[in-house]
């Protein structure tokens, strides 16, 4: 029963025993394209998206799950990519802000509603807000203003665009119900 | 805001890029071959580095460089923004063994990947000689200075009008007169824009035989200071530094000057010969940039029995650092809110062992208005007068400090219109007298605010293309305030062309010299500069001074490929030397006292709080705010900005405090979890309106600033509403649940 | 973050084998919202991690049975929060999940991993220069003489006053939940009430789980009492914050409004999920009124020990219990 790694510096040169590895080959889909990468298991999905795949629409605001700026969808559900080890994306379908507009560039209804309601200022939290807003509607959590506020509270906006964000998400939710 | 709100008729011009994630912020840049950097920071609050062991860090595979004070010889301070330099503080980490505050960078590690850089930074071992420090206003060792003596400059002098102390002493004995005498405490707070501080530095050969050229990509409100500051720090010519910052992910004052990491990253990139990116982690941001200093404000306010304000004294203790004097100008606004003939201000600065504090949205005005507007509410209660009526009765058209007229002051109309929209007439004055259906105690509070109307030298360029398209560039920064939108609207309206034909550009020192964008003067400087450039353009195109222009035809008629003009705007009465400061990346704002007039923006806020039964959580279900910011340049973005200021005020009043454990120095709650800014569920209905009457004097477009005044007074209105709900006066922010239990 | 080796076995037995093989400091990784976060902070530095996030055996939820509710440890908090049976018959469970963190984090985090959520004490998470007996046994506790507004008033010791941060376990403990675990020495069942330690002189020992033991599922005996229940969570913000005080309460009332069964547990004020059995006893046989509810709250906080800045939590928790009992009573089946 071999110990696969050690905490001393020789760990780097000692290959771990199966099933463990310190470089993990991972395959997943990002915005409908296949991606294959060799990952250090320390890498977050956020850093892989931004620094390796150059999908920089997803933002880093805290790196600890406190702000929601890095929100993406994994298999259609919203997560914070900063606390998602990228190795856990194996076999999943990841959607980022770059992947929600239509093939011809037409905005997703939630994106359009953010424009129409001026639900943004500096724009830095906006990709995360949009991803959260889309999921919020899909989940059925945008039924009234109070519910939408609660289920959008995982996305901080320091500019204070909250009223517009709620209005935008609610407008789309109302339309999809109708 | 209800969901029935109709979509605004005008759209923010960069909204599409923002909702699609295609807008590029500073550290979105990923150049080929880029390496990643991470900082190691000091764990003691004050003292000296006696040993720094970087061996383990440097030995880690993938590490390219460990930069420390021992080998950063080419690095010098960029100076202090308020001391003739460029930085948020004069103290530059890695220039010596001094530890001035906990969290101070002591090493920069560069590696192939972010995770290796971060791991290596954690392996840097430091030994310190620790010294006792002072971190709060009252701490032993905190040193208080009288600002006017420590910084003998007119702009930081104490505001004095009439004989406030004499009148106060007399009022204390006059029958019927009322004197309010109270002390208000405001904690340190952090700006926390969502975009982290960070830098991508790249060097390239100029190909001219001269020194290489440095390109800095980072979010900043002051690309000029970054350009000239880094050049100073590295000892190179400023024309060898390019700063690119077209979009800032929120500034709020934090990014208004040179940050300490920029030169470190630039040096690292030069040493390793590859681009380097550093994104400063949120916890480190709490110590690597400025913050709103803690203040204690003593207000004495006298009125006669009819409510006429006779005299006021406003004394402020404001925290600063050991190495810089960050001045306060709290009394600049409290001396102007009302027509008080006798006024004396006093600013004191208290040296503590922190990084230098600095600007944070409404940097002085927010806390000053909380204090003063609380005192005015206390006065209304003592007099048995309605707080709106009391304020209206003390309105003035003339600046009581200078005797000059206000260029525009529609504060009374803000109050009247706000009271009407809010339904203030239904308020019953007795504290605790209003109840909601669920048994919550209801409190209605009002407060006003103002913010100095400043303007800064601003460079603009307009280029008309044969296609009819117009490119407009300004030496200013877009932080979400809607500058690009206002630029496009101004050009489109002037030339009578579709907004889609206008392309705005900001935040690029390759194009124009850039002045600091802060103090709400961004739009108020950019638009007049554009107006000047448009006038030049009309001349160059040989078209009439007014009226729609067929741009394509006019360009064709000149026989040129395109027609480009430049103009520079300066504030009223500013001497030409301010342009030298502009070109040197130094701040040169003018105002609020301009030749022959004084300019402020004005606002009135009406706040409802509800305090639920049993648990007593404080909620803010609705706010009405009416602002006088002159002509509204862009209604959509202005409305958003005013609502955002209200959100800031609520958050400051009820949530935010940067906590200090004096055993350790620095700030304890250095994360977005522990430093609680308002979330969506905290915010109810915010109804905003504008007077929208052009200011006739400040500039040709009649615009005044809005970004900061939006927040001024909100916290006072919240505190006054809490008093109305509970009968209890809170003179310390934030007001927490336990305060009203 | 220190480097670590990663394995993602395909089954529970393989995961257990892998963990044993990796040695005593290896850790299971589920949603990552606690472990990966603390690894980023350097507070946790396991040399090896065994990913159990997607093991299908752990994802099973069965709330339809007559005797017990079964929650596979790997079920996501967001999913369990919307289970129709919970929403109808166990609102305290659904609310304890829905009021935790944010929807993004609830989508990631698992109901098993959440039981093991670690404290949010600033001195624990902050690393150097703060002393923390949890992080480094024997190093001291900076919170004791520090900014302790968020810290515990119940179950504290001279070594640690860190608050147990979770919500779900607080609701579960009130309903006599048990936890099935599997480890190198086989399977066993632990009452949730016996899962967490008080800090005592060993705050680093947070649970009674042995090395290599994996939580497989949580089981809750069915009870009609929970129809009249709530999880009342009081925070510094309206949402997305840890509790200053919380109360999981359930009451059953007879036709005269007399309490026949009561459950009370506290969060945000104690070092572990805190069942207030004595408070429950004060209610049974009495009518549910503001006064009896308040008395129960006071009984729940008996023995609370205030620190420097958190004394308000005692009164706040009393009121939270009082208000939570009101809400539970309004929902109760008579």
UniProtKB/TrEMBL annotation, chain A:
<dbReference type="InterPro" id="IPR012675">
    <property type="entry name" value="Beta-grasp_dom_sf"/>
</dbReference>
<dbReference type="InterPro" id="IPR006058">
    <property type="entry name" value="2Fe2S_fd_BS"/>
</dbReference>
<dbReference type="Pfam" id="PF00111">
    <property type="entry name" value="Fer2"/>
</dbReference>
<dbReference type="Pfam" id="PF01799">
    <property type="entry name" value="Fer2_2"/>
</dbReference>
<protein>
    <submittedName>
        <fullName>(2Fe-2S)-binding protein</fullName>
    </submittedName>
</protein>
<keyword id="KW-0479">Metal-binding</keyword>
<feature type="domain" description="2Fe-2S ferredoxin-type">
    <location>
        <begin position="24"/>
        <end position="100"/>
    </location>
</feature>
<feature type="region of interest" description="Disordered">
    <location>
        <begin position="1"/>
        <end position="20"/>
    </location>
</feature>
<keyword id="KW-0408">Iron</keyword>
<dbReference type="InterPro" id="IPR052914">
    <property type="entry name" value="Aldehyde_Oxdr_Iron-Sulfur"/>
</dbReference>
<dbReference type="InterPro" id="IPR036010">
    <property type="entry name" value="2Fe-2S_ferredoxin-like_sf"/>
</dbReference>
<keyword id="KW-0560">Oxidoreductase</keyword>
<dbReference type="InterPro" id="IPR001041">
    <property type="entry name" value="2Fe-2S_ferredoxin-type"/>
</dbReference>
<dbReference type="InterPro" id="IPR036884">
    <property type="entry name" value="2Fe-2S-bd_dom_sf"/>
</dbReference>
<feature type="compositionally biased region" description="Basic and acidic residues">
    <location>
        <begin position="1"/>
        <end position="11"/>
    </location>
</feature>
<dbReference type="InterPro" id="IPR002888">
    <property type="entry name" value="2Fe-2S-bd"/>
</dbReference>
TrEMBL record, chain C:
<dbReference type="InterPro" id="IPR051312">
    <property type="entry name" value="Diverse_Substr_Oxidored"/>
</dbReference>
<dbReference type="InterPro" id="IPR036683">
    <property type="entry name" value="CO_DH_flav_C_dom_sf"/>
</dbReference>
<dbReference type="InterPro" id="IPR002346">
    <property type="entry name" value="Mopterin_DH_FAD-bd"/>
</dbReference>
<dbReference type="InterPro" id="IPR005107">
    <property type="entry name" value="CO_DH_flav_C"/>
</dbReference>
<keyword id="KW-0560">Oxidoreductase</keyword>
<dbReference type="InterPro" id="IPR016167">
    <property type="entry name" value="FAD-bd_PCMH_sub1"/>
</dbReference>
<dbReference type="InterPro" id="IPR016166">
    <property type="entry name" value="FAD-bd_PCMH"/>
</dbReference>
<protein>
    <submittedName>
        <fullName>Xanthine dehydrogenase family protein subunit M</fullName>
    </submittedName>
</protein>
<dbReference type="Pfam" id="PF00941">
    <property type="entry name" value="FAD_binding_5"/>
</dbReference>
<dbReference type="Pfam" id="PF03450">
    <property type="entry name" value="CO_deh_flav_C"/>
</dbReference>
<dbReference type="InterPro" id="IPR016169">
    <property type="entry name" value="FAD-bd_PCMH_sub2"/>
</dbReference>
<dbReference type="InterPro" id="IPR036318">
    <property type="entry name" value="FAD-bd_PCMH-like_sf"/>
</dbReference>
<feature type="domain" description="FAD-binding PCMH-type">
    <location>
        <begin position="1"/>
        <end position="225"/>
    </location>
</feature>
């Amino acid at each position: 029963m071999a110990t696969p790694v050690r905490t001393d510096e020789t760990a780097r040169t000692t290959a771990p025993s199966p099933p463990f590895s310190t470089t993990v080959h991972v395959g997943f889909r990002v915005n409908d394209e296949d991606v294959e990468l060799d990952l250090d298991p320390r890498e977050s999905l956020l850093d892989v998206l931004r620094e390796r795949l150059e999908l920089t629409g997803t933002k880093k605001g805290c790196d600890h799950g406190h702000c929601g700026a890095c929100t993406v969808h994994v298999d259609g559900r919203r997560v914070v990519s900063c606390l998602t080890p990228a190795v856990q994306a194996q076999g999943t379908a990841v959607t980022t802000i770059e992947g929600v507009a239509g093939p011809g560039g037409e905005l997703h209804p939630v994106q359009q509603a953010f424009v129409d309601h001026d639900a943004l200022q500096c724009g830095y939290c906006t990709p995360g807000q949009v991803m959260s807003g889309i999921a919020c509607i899909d989940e059925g959590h945008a039924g009234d203003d109070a519910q939408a506020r609660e289920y959008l509270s995982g996305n901080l906006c320091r500019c204070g665009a909250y009223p517009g964000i709620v209005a935008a998400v609610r407008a789309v939710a109302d339309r999809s119900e109708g | 805001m209800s969901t029935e709100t109709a979509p605004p008729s005008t759209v923010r011009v960069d909204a599409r890029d923002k909702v699609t994630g295609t807008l590029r912020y500073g550290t979105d840049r990923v150049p080929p071959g880029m390496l990643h950097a991470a900082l190691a920071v000091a764990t003691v609050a004050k003292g000296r580095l006696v040993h720094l062991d970087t061996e383990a860090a440097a030995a880690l595979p993938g590490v390219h460089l460990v930069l420390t004070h021992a080998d950063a010889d080419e690095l010098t301070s960029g100076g202090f923004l308020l001391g003739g330099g460029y930085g948020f503080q004069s103290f530059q980490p890695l220039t010596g063994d001094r530890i001035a505050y906990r969290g101070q960078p002591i090493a920069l590690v560069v590696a192939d990947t972010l995770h290796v850089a971060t791991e290596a930074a954690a392996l840097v071992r430091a030994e310190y000689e620790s010294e006792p420090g002072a971190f709060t206003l009252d701490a032993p060792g905190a040193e208080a200075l009288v600002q006017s003596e420590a910084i003998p400059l007119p702009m930081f002098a104490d505001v004095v009008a009439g004989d406030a102390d004499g009148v106060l002493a007399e009022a204390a004995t006059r029958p019927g007169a009322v004197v309010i005498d109270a002390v208000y405490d405001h904690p340190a707070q952090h700006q926390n824009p969502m975009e982290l501080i960070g830098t991508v530095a790249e060097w390239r050969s100029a190909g001219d035989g001269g020194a290489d050229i440095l390109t800095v990509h980072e979010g900043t409100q002051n690309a000029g200071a970054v350009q000239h500051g880094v050049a100073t720090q590295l000892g190179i010519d400023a024309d060898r530094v390019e700063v690119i910052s077209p979009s800032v992910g929120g500034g709020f004052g934090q990014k208004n000057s040179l940050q300490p990491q920029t030169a470190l990253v630039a040096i690292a990139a030069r040493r390793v010969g590859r681009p380097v990116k550093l994104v400063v982690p949120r916890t480190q941001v709490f110590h690597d940039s400025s913050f709103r200093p803690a203040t204690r404000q003593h207000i004495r306010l006298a009125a006669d029995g009819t409510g006429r304000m006779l005299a006021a004294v406003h004394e402020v203790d404001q925290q600063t650092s050991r190495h810089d004097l960050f001045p306060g100008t709290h009394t600049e606004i409290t001396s102007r809110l009302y027509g008080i003939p006798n006024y004396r201000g006093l600013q004191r600065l208290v040296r503590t062992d922190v990084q230098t504090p600095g600007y944070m949205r409404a940097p002085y005005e927010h806390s000053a208005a909380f204090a003063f507007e609380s005192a005015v509410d206390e006065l209304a209660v003592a007099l048995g007068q309605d707080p709106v009526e009391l304020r209206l009765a003390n309105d003035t058209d003339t600046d009581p400090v200078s005797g000059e007229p206000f260029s525009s002051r529609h504060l009374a109309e803000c109050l009247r219109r706000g009271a009407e929209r809010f339904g203030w007439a239904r308020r019953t004055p007795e504290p605790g007298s209003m109840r909601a259906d669920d048994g919550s105690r209801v409190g209605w509070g009002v407060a006003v605010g103002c913010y100095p109307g400043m303007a800064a030298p601003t460079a603009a360029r307009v280029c008309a293309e044969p296609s009819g398209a117009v490119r407009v560039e300004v030496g200013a920064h877009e932080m979400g305030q809607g500058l690009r939108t206002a630029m496009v609207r101004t050009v489109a309206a002037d030339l009578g062309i579709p907004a889609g034909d206008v392309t705005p550009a900001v935040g690029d020192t390759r194009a124009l010299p850039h002045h600091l964008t802060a103090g709400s003067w961004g739009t108020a400087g950019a638009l007049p500069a554009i107006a000047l450039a448009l006038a030049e353009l009309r001349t160059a195109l040989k078209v009439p001074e007014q009226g729609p222009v067929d741009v394509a035809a006019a360009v064709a008629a000149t026989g040129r490929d395109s027609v480009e003009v430049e103009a520079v705007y300066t504030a009223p009465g500013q001497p030409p030397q301010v342009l030298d400061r502009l070109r040197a990346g130094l701040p040169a704002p003018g105002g609020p006292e301009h030749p022959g007039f004084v300019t402020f923006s004005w606002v009135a806020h009406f706040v409802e709080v509800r305090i639920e039964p049993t648990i007593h959580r404080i909620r803010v279900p609705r706010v009405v705010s009416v602002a006088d910011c002159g002509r509204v340049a862009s209604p959509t973005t202005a409305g958003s900005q005013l609502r955002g200021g209200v959100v800031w005020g609520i958050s400051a009043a009820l949530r935010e405090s940067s906590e200090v454990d004096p055993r350790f120095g620095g700030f304890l709650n250095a994360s977005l979890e522990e430093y609680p800014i308002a979330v969506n569920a905290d915010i109810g209905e915010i109804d905003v309106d504008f007077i929208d009457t052009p200011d006739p004097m400040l500039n040709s477009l009649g615009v005044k600033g809005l970004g900061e005044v939006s927040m001024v007074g909100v916290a006072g209105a919240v505190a006054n509403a809490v008093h109305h709900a509970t009968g209890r006066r809170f003179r310390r922010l934030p007001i927490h649940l336990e305060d009203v239990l | 973050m220190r480097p670590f080796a990663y394995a993602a076995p395909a089954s529970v037995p393989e995961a257990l084998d892998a963990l044993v093989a990796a040695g005593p400091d290896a850790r299971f990784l589920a949603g990552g919202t606690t472990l990966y976060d603390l690894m980023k902070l350097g507070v946790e530095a396991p040399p090896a991690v065994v990913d159990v996030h997607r093991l299908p055996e752990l994802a099973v939820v069965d709330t339809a049975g007559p005797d017990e509710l079964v929650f596979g440890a790997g079920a996501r908090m967001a999913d369990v929060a919307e289970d129709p049976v919970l929403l109808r018959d166990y609102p305290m469970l659904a609310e304890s999940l829905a009021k935790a963190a944010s929807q993004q984090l609830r989508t990631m985090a698992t109901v098993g991993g959440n039981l093991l959520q670690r404290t949010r004490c600033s001195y624990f998470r902050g690393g150097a220069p703060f002393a923390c007996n949890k992080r480094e046994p024997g190093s001291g506790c900076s919170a004791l003489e520090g900014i302790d507004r968020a810290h515990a008033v119940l179950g504290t010791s001279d070594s640690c006053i860190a608050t147990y941060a979770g919500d779900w376990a607080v609701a579960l403990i009130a309903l006599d939940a048990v936890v099935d675990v599997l480890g190198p020495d086989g399977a066993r069942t632990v009452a949730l009430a016996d899962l967490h330690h008080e800090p005592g002189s060993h705050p680093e020992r947070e649970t009674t789980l042995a090395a290599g033991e994996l939580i497989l599922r949580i089981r809750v005996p069915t009870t009609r009492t929970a129809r009249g229940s709530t999880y009342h969570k009081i925070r510094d913000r309206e949402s997305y914050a840890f509790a200053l005080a919380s109360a999981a309460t359930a009451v059953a009332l007879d036709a005269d409004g007399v309490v026949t069964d009561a459950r009370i547990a506290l969060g945000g004020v104690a070092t572990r999920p805190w069942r207030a059995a004595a408070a429950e006893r004060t209610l049974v046989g009495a009518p549910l009124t503001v006064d009896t509810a308040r008395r129960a709250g006071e009984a729940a906080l008996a023995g609370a020990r205030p620190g420097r800045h958190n004394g308000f939590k005692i009164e706040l928790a009393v009121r939270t219990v009082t208000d939570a009992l009101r809400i539970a009573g309004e929902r109760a089946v008579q």
